[in-house]
Amino acid sequence: MIKKASVTVHPSYKIGVVDKRLFGAFLEPIGNWVYGGIYNPHHPTADDMGFRRDILDAVREFDLPALRFPGGNWVSGWDWKGSIGPLEQRRAQLDLAWFQIEPNIIGHNEYLEWTRRAGTEPMYTINLGTEGIKSAAQLVEYSVHPGGTYWSELRRKHGHPDPWPIKTWYLGNEMDGHWQIGSWEKDPVGFGIRTHEISKVIKWIDNKAETVFAGTSDHHKHFPEWEMAALEQCYESVDYVSLHHYHSVPEGDIANLLNISSVFEDYIRTTIAICDYIQTKIRTPKKMYISFDEYGAHFGRQVEVPFGRRGWHDVSKSYFQFAPRENVFKNPLDWLNGEEAGNTARFHNHQMLTALAMSSVLLTFLRHADRIKIACMTGGLRNAIAFDSKHVWKNATYYPFYQLNRLARGGMSILPVVDGPTFNTEQFALSGSNQCHAYENVQAIEAAAVHHEEKGEAVVFLINRSVEHDIAVELDVRGFEGYRLVEHLEMYTDDLTKGNSHDQPDAIIPRPNAGTRMDGGKVTALTKKLSWNVIRLAKS
User: Fold this and answer.
1) Helix or strand or coil: residue 238?
2) Cα-flanking dihedrals φ and ψ of residue 52, to 5°?
3) Helix, strand, coil distribution of the chain in percent, nearest 5
4) Which regions are flagged for Basic and acidic residues bias (predicted)?
């Protein structure tokens, strides 16, 4: 028996304008994302700087609006000054985040040049782990000041006469985490003050700059207390709060994987409440916005779970079983010869389910478009725009990511009302941070909508999260008077083990659903189980 659901979308239910940077990506030199990935002078498509043209072409085709780089955990130990100037004078260093040797062949200016060639906006993360105010000020001056000072003239001497177009600066990365080099976990007030002072300096150098406070990452054990204590110190000088979350669930638990939106909703709503509380407390009219600049979803494995969310951690084993007498550091230049990084296999598994989970996150962001202005999919490069040491292709996640980027940005997000079949999830705890309570009565149909009033276009995005049932959706769009149905595109597979690859690029792609109809302001559509759906309307 086919289940039924109703979805109502009305142009009066306005949330906020969808910022194009909501569909950004994240880049960090993990494994062969950089060396052997975007950079490989041995690749047949390498350009004059060793950048792979096949990846650049794919990024331009996607029209990636923004990229946050160069980290990530990696940035908290990186010396940017060691990565500028002639290659023969650059300093290789140990990367204590991912236990690699950082050769600094791709350095500060190379990252920025890559974004220029890719046609995307650079959003730069500053090291606040091992570096401080002076280093941050010199970095910004070197990057964006026109000339006439030591640091700006040094940039010009290095072959870059014009300032780099950096508007957004991230002030540290996950600085509350015990895993972070130079962690501020035990001093949130101190970190808030440091953030405030650096934000001031950046805006004194460039009064058009935006700054981002590094908020509590991944629902950490001290959330939300740490956030509140730190943000109060810098609320008046920063523009965004940074959020990160990686949704890891037990292997095969599809219900918890696709209930990712409920987890993100809780995280976002709590953060908004913190921001609004501080705004009220310090009596300022300034509204704080959110940059959700790292996120992902995958099946995980069970590890040792500390007692509760405030359990004891051995910080020397945060990511690796650290063995001082073993040579654990890898040389990423080995990946220029085709060796694949071992930690990238997960990006090629469970493609349809991963696509649905990541799409659910993006729909959640649309439903908070009034407060979330920036978002960076961690797997936007490698998971959506997929590549290995030789080839580039489009994984299943690419298609909803691309459709949202093309059809949603710049429009007005509209709040849909959904009523239909529901499902429940069970509590789990994979680790100290990967824990989740049970949820009840989660809507199997998830929706978001965008209205481009000036173009006479409206788009409704639907996910059928049911594992067992196709669901007939009655979409009430009577508020869009004079609009007609343009198309219904759907993406699903009957075989969840299938996935796209260079050899099979079209295993999972969107296709038209010719059976969808519109009559009297209502659209009737059959959504397949575990499917992604895009319904487009336009004025006649």
Assistant:
1) coil
2) -75, 120
3) 30, 25, 45
4) 496-505
**Cα 90–chain centre separation:** 31
For residue 394 the two structure tokens come to 């489009």
Task: Look at residues 195, 72, 224, 71 and name the one whose alpha carbon lies nearest to residue 136.
Answer: 195
Tell which residue, 313, 169, 303, has the closest CA to residue 248: 303
Q: Which sequence spans correspond to the domains of the chain? A: 19-409, 413-539
Write out the E strands in 316-441: 372-377, 385-387, 392-394, 412-414, 417-419, 422-423, 428-429, 435-436
Q: Which fold has domain 413-539?
A: Immunoglobulin-like (2.60.40)
Name the residues annotated as catalytic.
174, 294
Please provide residue 280's backbone torsions phi and psi, each rounded to the nearest 5 degrees.
Answer: -70, -40
* Helix count and strand count (H, E) for the chain: 10, 28
Say how many C-beta atoms besides its own lie within 10 A of residue 435's C-beta: 16
User: How open is the CA angle 334-340-346, to the nearest 5 degrees?
Assistant: 145
Question: Taking the domain 19-409, which CATH number applies?
Answer: 3.20.20.80
* Contact (CB, 8 A) for 526 and 470: yes
CA distance 355 to 260: 12
Work out whether strand 517-519 and strand 442-443 pair parallel, antiparallel, or are unpaired: unpaired
Beta carbons of 237 and 196 less than 8 angstroms apart: yes
pLDDT, position 430: 87
Q: For 299-328, write each residue's pLDDT tens digit.
A: 998 877 765 544 444 544 544 444 444 556
CB neighbours of residue 189 within 10 Å: 13
| Per-residue model confidence as pLDDT tens digits over 173-193 | 999 998 899 999 999 999 999
Both structure tokens of 226: 């740490």
Please name the amino acid found at residue 412: M
User: Could you give the CA distance from residue 451 to residue 340 in angstroms, rounded to a whole number?
Assistant: 43
Contact assessment for residue 299 and residue 395, using Cβ atoms and an 8 Å cutoff? no
Contact between 38 and 376 under an 8 Å Cβ cutoff? The reply is no
**Res 221: pLDDT:** 77
Q: Return averaged pLDDT per consecutive 10 residues of the chain, 540 residues in all.
A: 94 98 97 94 97 98 98 96 96 92 97 98 98 98 98 98 98 94 96 98 98 85 92 98 95 96 96 98 97 95 66 48 57 80 53 98 98 97 93 97 98 98 94 86 98 98 97 98 98 95 96 98 98 96
Q: Would you state the pLDDT for residue 219?
A: 62
User: What is the three-class DSSP state of 180?
Assistant: coil
CB 321: neighbour CB atoms within 10 A? 8
Residues counted in the chain: 540
Please give the Cα distance from 113 to 94 (Å, whole number): 24
Distance CA 289, CA 83 (A): 32
